[in-house]
Design goal:
The complex is a heterodimer of chains A (about 280) and B (about 250).
Chain A lengths: L3 H36 L5 H5 L12 H32 L3 H14 L4 H15 L6 H26 L2 H9 L4 H9 L4 H17 L2 H6 L9 H6 L5 H11 L3 H32 L3
Chain B lengths: L2 E12 L2 E12 L3 E5 L6 H7 L10 E9 L2 E2 L7 H7 E4 L10 H11 L5 H14 L3 H4 L12 H13 L5 E5 L7 H14 L4 E5 L3 H7 L2 E6 L2 E7 H6 L4 H7 L5
Parallel strand pairs in B: 3-8, 3-9, 6-7, 7-8
Antiparallel strand pairs in B: 1-2, 1-4, 4-5, 9-10
Helix pairs in contact in B: 3-4, 3-6, 4-6
The chains are: A mainly alpha (about 280), B alpha/beta (about 250).
Bound molecules: adenosine-5'-triphosphate (ATP) and magnesium ion.
Chain lengths: ~280, ~250
């Protein structure tokens, strides 16, 4: 039999847990509902498909959407080979395990640094030192550095889950190291690479501080080539600009709603991808 | 019978612990040689020195010599990949790659430069036939190999090893994870294969050594205690320790 005191204690703890769960849920629901209610009525085809003009007073976010796509694509194109390459080197080739440990630790620390610091360093290094000026390219490169640790670490972790027995089997047939990695190890860890990329896309979409410093906040409509060399606002930066500098809260909330939907979609696809690969792999 | 491999004064260390002590042995061609001995005595370690799989472990240090066809395989001029093609390996736990049955077998030949579909088809069929598993899998070559039973997986691994046309097959307790029927099939297979290949097999199962091997080597704590014809070693062992082991007095 439980004593009265003990029962009261357990009851109290349970109540506390329910209350904290409740508060969290309420906040999330409130936030999502608030953004959607304020934002969705302001989303129109007009808004999505035009560029802003001071002369006509039109506000459109097509340039910001395109800029976001350019930044995401450029960042991924650079960060995936770098991150996956580094992961392969560190897990499969590097002999000195101590240095590998230090690099892994450094990468973990790096991914926790506030993004505004990446922004300032990116501004000094890419915009000024390398002479990219404020441009989508400078922004994308800054995001590459920001996301490199994530892509590297997720790839590494999934490389480590590929059983040694596969490698032994392949080496035992006389395969060279690179062939073993390419044909046996890498196919076994595609899911990790994809998960890392999806996480990165989410982070890129949500990033504003680092881009504000490096990519600027222009709203010009550009193709990808011109776009990369000129300044441009991503959706998050545009949100900040519309809300803070122009007082266009309706537009800001419309962008917020779009970003939230995108984030939702990305998390969903991450879950689906990992479920798909979970089913497929049998080790 | 010709000798195909010879180890001379072979010592091996994992970091600072010595796992093989001055091993000398000669392995005859087209025969089955069994390695027996208690757990941890160095059977697997020695087997892996024969095709340099130990190279993959960074702490390993080796002295002495192993010659194959008259050449020291630890010579710096030896092409390790080519060596491992000629001296194949089958592991204790079946380890098919997570790909189709066909691709598993074709992995080795493709690695060594065979691209022709006709040629690959031919090799895949022949290897599966030689490993006595063709009839069971011929209708599901495109299916994932991980869906097979343990015994089938192990025969698939043997077929995979045969596909690169090795001269020697090293088998590290290939039946220890299998049921008695699968074990029997692999034993029969080994006997069949020794017509064309040299087989070296590590086993914990003494009946198995007696059933299939021509020569047996008894290892104890990193040393090769006794080596000779299987029949003789099991009926009239020369060393007291061999006798104790085969009569089940320890280990
Ligand atoms: N990678 C390794 N690093 C360090 N020591 C090792 C390593 N592999 C094996 N050893 C040690 O070397 C000795 C011989 O091991 P080995 O695996 O060759 O024994 P075995 O005779 O095959 O045993 P079993 O019958 O259990 O498979 C053991 O003491 C073992 O602990
Ligand atoms: Mg062993």
């Amino acid at each position: 039999m439980l004593s009265k005191k003990r029962k009261a204690y357990i009851g109290g703890m349970k109540a506390a847990m329910y209350i904290s769960t409740g508060i969290t849920a309420v906040f999330v629901i409130f936030l999502v509902a608030y953004v959607f209610i304020k934002g969705i009525p302001n989303i129109s085809w007009e808004l999505l498909s035009t560029k802003p003009s001071y002369i006509s007073g039109n506000i459109g976010i097509l340039p910001d959407i395109l800029n976001t796509i350019y930044i995401v694509l450029t960042t991924l194109i650079v960060v995936i080979p770098l991150g996956v390459g580094a992961a392969i080197y560190l897990t499969e080739y590097a002999k000195n395990k101590k240095i590998v440990g230090i690099i892994e630790y450094a990468a973990e620390t790096l991914s926790g640094i506030p993004s505004i610091i990446y922004g300032s360093v990116g501004m000094l290094f890419f915009c000024e030192f390398l002479g990219f000026r404020k441009s989508l390219l400078a922004g994308a490169m800054t995001l590459v550095i920001m996301n490199l640790p994530t892509v590297m670490r997720t790839t590494q972790e999934s490389l480590k889950t590929v059983p040694q027995s596969y490698r032994d089997g392949a080496f035992g047939l006389g395969a060279g190291k690179w062939r073993v990695i390419r044909k046996v190890v890498l196919p076994g860890c595609v899911d990790g690479v994809i998960t890392g990329c999806i996480l990165s896309v989410g982070r890129i979409l949500g990033e504003s501080a680092a881009l504000l410093f490096t990519a600027g906040f222009a709203h010009a409509l550009n193709g990808i080539i011109d776009g990369l060399s000129s300044p441009g606002a991503s959706l998050t930066v545009a949100l900040y600009v519309y809300a803070k500098e122009q007082g266009e809260f309706g537009i800001a909330f419309a962008i917020a709603a779009i970003l939230m939907i995108l984030t939702l979609l990305i998390n969903l696809s991450a879950a689906l991808v990992s479920r798909y690969f979970m089913k497929k792999r049998k080790f | 019978m010709n000798d195909i491999m010879t180890a001379k004064n072979l010592n091996l260390w994992y970091d600072k612990t010595q796992a093989l002590k001055n091993v000398n042995i000669t392995i005859p061609e087209k025969s089955i040689t069994a390695f027996i001995g208690p757990s941890g005595c160095g059977k697997s370690t020695f087997l892996k020195t024969l095709n340099r799989m130990n190279d993959l472990i960074p702490t390993v240090r080796i002295t002495g010599e192993i010659s194959y066809n008259g050449q020291n395989i630890y010579d710096s001029t030896v092409d390790v990949n080519e060596l491992r093609r000629e001296i194949g390996m089958v592991f204790q736990k079946p380890n098919p790659f997570p790909m189709s049955i066909y691709d598993n077998i074709a992995y080795g030949p493709r690695t060594h430069g065979i691209r022709s579909k006709v040629k690959l088809d031919e090799i895949v069929e022949q290897s599966l036939r030689d490993a006595a598993i063709w009839d069971e899998v011929k209708d599901r070559l495109k299916k994932n190999a991980l869906g097979m039973s343990g015994g089938q997986q192990q025969r698939l691994c043997i077929a995979r090893a045969l596909a690169v046309k090795p001269k020697i097959l090293l088998m590290d307790e290939p039946t220890s994870a299998l049921d008695p029927i699968s074990t029997l099939r692999i034993e029969e297979l080994a006997i069949e294969l020794k017509k064309s290949y040299t087989i070296v097999i590590v086993t914990h199962n003494m009946q198995q050594a007696v059933r299939i091997s021509d020569n047996t080597a008894f290892f104890l704590m990193g040393e090769l205690i006794e080596y000779g014809e299987t029949e003789k070693l099991f009926s009239q062992p020369e060393d007291k320790r061999t006798e104790d082991y085969i009569t089940g007095r320890f280990g």
